[in-house]
Amino acid sequence: MNPVASTTDSLADLVAGRREDILRRWSARLEPSPPGMSEALQERLQGMIKLVDALVLILRQGAVETWAQGAVWSHAREIGLRRFRSGARVETLVQEYGLLRETLLEVLDTSQRPLRTDELGILWRALDRSLTEAVAHYVQEHEQALRSRELRLQEILDHAPAAIYAKDALGRYLFINHPFETISGHERAAVLGRSDFELFPQETAERFRHNDRRVLAARAPLVFDEEVLQSDGPHLYHTMKFPLPSVAEGEPWALCGVSTDITATRTLRQERDEAREQLQRVLTQLPVVLWAFDTQGVFTLFEGEGVTSTGVPSQGMRGRSVFEVFRDRRDVLEVILRALAGERLSTELYLMGVWFEVRLLPVFDPGGRVVSVSGVSLDITERRRAEQELRTSETRYRLATQATRDIIWDWDLVTDEIHWSDMAPRLLRMDMSRGPPVMDMEWWTASLHPDERERVTHELQQALDSPEGHWQAEYRLRRGDGTWAFVEDRGRVVKDLQGRPVRMVGAMQDVTGRHEAEAEAKRRAEFEQLLIGIVGHDLRNPISAITMAATTLAKREDADPRDQKAVARILSSAERAHRMLRDVLDFTQARLGGGIPMAPRDVDLLDLVRQVVDEVQQAHPDRRLEVDGRGGARLWCDPDRLAQVITNLVNNALAYGDAFCPVRVRLRGQPGTVTLAVKNQGHPIPQDLMPHLFEPLKRAEAREGSRAHGLGLGLFIVKHIVDAHGGRLRVRSNLQDGTTFLVQLPRQPPPRG
Fold first, then answer.
1. Pairing mode, if any, of strands 345-351 and 299-303?
2. What are the φ/ψ torsions at residue 474 (nearest 5 degrees)?
3. DSSP character for 700?
4. DSSP state of 63
5. 3-state class (DSSP) for residue 748
6. Do residues 310 and 354 lie in contact, with contact meaning Cβ atoms separated by under 8 Å?
7. How far, in Å, are 635, 670, 724, 745 from residue 727 at the CA level?
8. Which residues does 62 contact at the CB level (< 8 Å), separation at least 6?
9. pLDDT tens across 424-476, in order?
10. Which phi-psi region, left, alpha or beta, contains residue 297 (left: φ > 0; alpha: ψ -120 to 50)?
11. CB 475 within 8 A of CB 452
12. Contact between residue 633 and residue 667 where contact means Cβ atoms under 8 Å apart
């Protein structure tokens, strides 16, 4: 902005020179302010000072239009803002500007100085523009305040528990709060301006419209119960609707409604009524007699379902005296007199052919005197019969526990008491000289063997916490004489209706004799295996000596052919004895739990298979052996042990297979594993032998014309060698395909633990 120079006799100089006079005259034209408003008047004067200064600036700088976007109108916006915040009406703001215009005209008329028309035009346009800015800002602030109040009101109504809404006379929604959105299933924007027929089902909308018309016609608030189908089912709303009259004519132009969801209240009311009806049915259907008599003993009440069991009509007992009815029953009269004396009591009585549990309640007046006796008699005939049967059952139970050697126990989990059968102290060798011994939960826990106490108590707690509630355990229990008994214990948890364990019953059996027999059998088996191992080991030296001597004789060139044949038989027999001895030692090692020793290294299994098959072929020149290998066959293994596996499987295939069919050895390399298959044709392995095929000393009958050599340990040792390599051994055998032994070996066996 570049201010233009003005002459000393310009209109701007005149207004600036007469500013104080202008403000004084303007103040004089205002209505006298009430007491205490001097501060507000001072604020209005400050606004007029800024306005006059702004007019002077505009007159000095030229046309009003050039300052349309400038800060020169900030004074006007401030005046509008202050007037709005002070609570003044917009008419007051216009009045102040009108008084300023009159004051300016008055000062200009009294100045006696010629005024230019263009300067006056700028002055009046600037004044009008300032008024426009002030009024516009006043209105803007007013609208913002209205919107803020509307938002606050909307927020307050949105948090109201009831649905609040307004409709015009045509049924179109003008306002709704958030709970109404839940009722209609639509957001606010989708509801405003629409009618019930666009938001609700036809039947519901017609009911709403009918109620609206009744309110508009009555011109008074009305209350309705309106049902609305919502996503979770029908809801019932208690609704109050009232008309909104127009300001001028007073005719209702709209209505407002407040709807409160009373579905839960209605449900509770229905449940209460149903509970009352159910209670009434219970009181009339239970086998009870409700009765009352006054201080003279006269019945005033005698009814209930239990009356029918007595065979006495209800009306026939009213008005009669209890002393007359029970004159021959001294026990009943004694109870009646005690109740009339003010004692509350309960007892069981046999009345009119029925067993009743009778409860008597004296009723006192404010002075503490008995005015009547009320009571209820419950028919307990069936309960008495059940108690008699229970006593009979308990007798049978006691006889049953005496007839068995099992110790029966019953653990009450609520009181922590344990009830033992009569045989328990005797079987557990408890000291009975000082009376029945204490055999509670603390005693049982302390009697557990220290090495097994934690395990057994943990398993017992797991059974208590489990849904099934079954428990079974074997443990050692200290007898009364200090010795240890091996017991087999089992129990079952009993739970209440809420699923809480309240009781546990079980049976304990002394299996000490069985444990001792098993331990003796185990010691005998270990001794036998140790004896076999010792014998097998000591036989190795003489067999080796025989083999070495026979080998030396076989190498002699001058030997007689008959001697050579005898030496060959000696070598063959020694080799067979050596194989049998090796099988015995391997069997002994496996049975003693040490496992067959291994010395693994990197091996090409295909080369090993060919080598072993060639050796077997030399021993059986009349048989045909075929080897087929595909894929890499290198793996980490013990070659001597696997040679033992291949030899056993191939020799078995030759011994039990058809002599006119070849024995096929197939090797397949897969990622991570190598599979060895040995197959022959012939009679399949008997089905009854298949489950025991890899057990020691088990073998099938050899084919006709051949003889099976060995002790029946070959497949047992093969299985242990394959297991030691982390492999799998399987067998398939049928008449059509023959018999195939499959050995699957990992290329890198898992580390041995």
1. unpaired
2. -115, 135
3. P
4. -
5. coil
6. yes
7. 12, 14, 7, 4
8. 4, 122
9. 888 888 888 888 888 888 899 999 999 999 999 999 999 899 988 899 999 99
10. left
11. yes
12. yes
